[in-house]
């Protein structure tokens, strides 16, 4: 896929149909004297730089957490293959391998592709005990169970991202071709441009923005294997078609560790769990809102623990977990509800929930803090959704 974002973006006034005026112009990492370490640390501090484009390509629908920078990958004999620039971990235990590459290193175009695939091959052979300590949430609890991480590691269920300031078109084509040689591996690949822009006019001091743009999305699909057996006489040869084998302990899951949830299974497990009736009430209340408001929808997670996310305009308002917690992605509120109402929603939640809500962009609130205010949370969601629908023009 060629680069689709232009070298200039524009300011505009919605009250003036004049096409706007130049606002920011494209610059390279070399123009700003930025090194690959700057990109590595930026992604570590803000994984959304690479995860949001992957969400748009349906490579993931999970929350991801920074895990480790410069993590050494080793062979079974203990030899170091190299260091992964950024290691991420999802809420279900899926592993993200992030490699950075800058435009002024075109000679490394082939190297980075071979390197990242080499990491993926050897990483799945490493024992889970050799991986870094699991990331923790605001309460100090691991964001995912060790067993979940270990299962994805053994399955080789990885999200691979190559990111840079301006990825070479030949590198993008080469990535798709090379990955084709590894189709039986459950690797999803994304190539993401982290395009840098500088304010066109230095009116109030230098200003810069990053615009992540997807250049390639390659989704892993289990393939058939064609096996030709020649025994003695050529006429006696046999052709058989097989699927890649899946370990016996994961047969109840989707291939490579992702579970298949539907709404019936979700509520069956919620009601049969040891959670109090109030928690069941909250789950049912969130789901029933989709019947009351046309603009609301829900999505089901693919992790071991059942989750349901209430969405508006494809953006999550609240994530509900059977195992006794709720999560929020604050940056989605304004995208779902508009700037003003999205801010009201965030402030309303902050007033209802524990102090942990204010301290994180991805707050996790445990059931004990939620149960006393369940009806208030449901009422707040109803209020902001109704206001958002009222404030938006009717397209009918």
Brief digest:
The chain is of the alpha+beta class. It is built from 12 helices and 15 strands. It is globular, with a radius of gyration of 24 Å.
Task: Tell me about this structure.
The chain is α+β, with helices and mostly antiparallel strands and 396 residues long. The protein has helices at residues 36-45, 48-56, 109-123, 146-155, 169-179, 263-272, 277-292, 333-337, 339-352, 356-359, 367-370, 374-391, and strands spanning 8-11, 21-27, 64-74, 80-90, 95-100, 158-164, 187-199, 208-218, 225-229, 238-242, 296-300, 307-312, 315-321, 325-327, 364-366. It has three domains: 8-218; 225-255, no CATH class; 263-390. The chain has twelve helices and 15 strands. Strands 1, 2, 3, 4, 5, 6, 7 and 8 form an eight-stranded mixed β-sheet that branches. It is globular.
Which properties best describe this structure?
15 strands, alpha+beta, 32% helix, 396 residues, five-stranded antiparallel beta sheet, eight-stranded mixed beta sheet
Describe the SSE topology.
Blueprint (H helix, E strand, L loop, with lengths): L7 E4 L9 E7 L8 H10 L2 H9 L7 E11 L5 E11 L4 E6 L8 H15 L22 H10 L2 E7 L4 H11 L7 E13 L8 E11 L6 E5 L8 E5 L20 H10 L4 H16 L3 E5 L6 E6 L2 E7 L3 E3 L5 H5 L1 H14 L3 H4 L4 E3 H4 L3 H18 L5
Parallel strand pairs: 5-6, 6-7
Antiparallel strand pairs: 1-2, 2-7, 3-4, 4-5, 7-8, 9-10, 11-12, 12-13, 13-14, 14-15
Helix pairs in contact: 3-5, 7-12, 9-12
Instruction: Indicate the radius of gyration in whole angstroms.
Output: 24 Å
Q: Count the strands?
A: 15
Could you say how many structural domains there are in total?
3
Question: Overall 3D geometry?
Answer: globular
How many H/I helices? Answer: 12
Helix/strand order, N-terminal first: EEHHEEEHHEHEEEEHHEEEEHHHEHH
Distance between the termini: 36 Å
Largest sheet: 8 strands, mixed
Instruction: Return residue spans where pLDDT drops below 50 for at least 5 consecutive residues.
Output: 222-227, 239-257
Average pLDDT confidence is: 81
Strand fraction equals 25-35%
**Structural class assignment:** alpha+beta
Helical coverage, percent range:
25-40%
């Amino acid at each position: 896929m060629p680069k689709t974002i232009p070298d200039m973006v524009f300011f505009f006034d919605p009250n003036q149909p004049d096409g706007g005026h130049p606002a920011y112009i494209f610059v390279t990492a070399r123009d700003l004297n930025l090194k690959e370490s700057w990109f590595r640390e930026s992604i570590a501090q803000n994984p959304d730089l690479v995860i949001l484009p992957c969400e748009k390509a349906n490579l993931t629908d999970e929350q991801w957490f920074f895990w480790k920078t410069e993590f050494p990958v080793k062979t079974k004999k203990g030899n170091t293959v190299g260091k992964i620039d950024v290691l991420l971990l999802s809420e279900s235990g899926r592993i993200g391998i992030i490699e950075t590459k800058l435009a002024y290193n075109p000679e490394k175009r082939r190297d980075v592709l071979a390197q990242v695939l080499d990491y993926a091959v050897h990483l799945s052979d490493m024992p889970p005990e050799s991986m870094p300590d699991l990331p923790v949430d605001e309460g100090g609890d691991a964001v995912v169970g060790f067993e979940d991480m270990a299962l994805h590691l053994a399955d080789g269920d990885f999200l691979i991202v190559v990111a840079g300031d301006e990825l070479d078109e030949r590198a993008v084509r080469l990535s798709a071709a090379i990955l084709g040689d590894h189709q039986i591996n459950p690797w999803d690949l994304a190539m993401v441009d982290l395009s840098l822009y500088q304010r066109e006019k230095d009116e109030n001091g230098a200003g810069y923005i990053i615009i992540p743009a997807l250049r390639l999305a390659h989704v892993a699909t289990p393939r058939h294997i064609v096996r030709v057996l020649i025994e003695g006489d050529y006429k006696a040869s046999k052709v058989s078609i097989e699927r890649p084998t899946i370990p016996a302990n994961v047969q109840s899951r989707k291939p490579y560790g992702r579970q298949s949830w539907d709404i019936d299974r979700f509520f069956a497990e919620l009601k049969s769990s040891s959670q109090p009736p109030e928690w069941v009430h909250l789950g049912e209340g969130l789901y029933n809102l989709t019947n009351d408001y046309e603009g609301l929808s829900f999505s089901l997670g693919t992790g071991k623990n059942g989750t349901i996310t209430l969405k508006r305009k494809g953006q999550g308002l609240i994530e509900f977990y059977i195992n006794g917690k709720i999560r929020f992605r604050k940056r989605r509120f304004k995208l779902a509800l508009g700037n003003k109402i999205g801010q009201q929603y965030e402030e309303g939640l902050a007033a209802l929930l524990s102090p942990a809500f204010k301290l994180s962009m991805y707050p996790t609130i445990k059931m004990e803090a939620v149960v006393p205010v369940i009806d208030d949370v449901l009422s707040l969601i109803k209020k902001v959704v109704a206001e958002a629908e009222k404030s938006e023009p009717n397209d009918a």
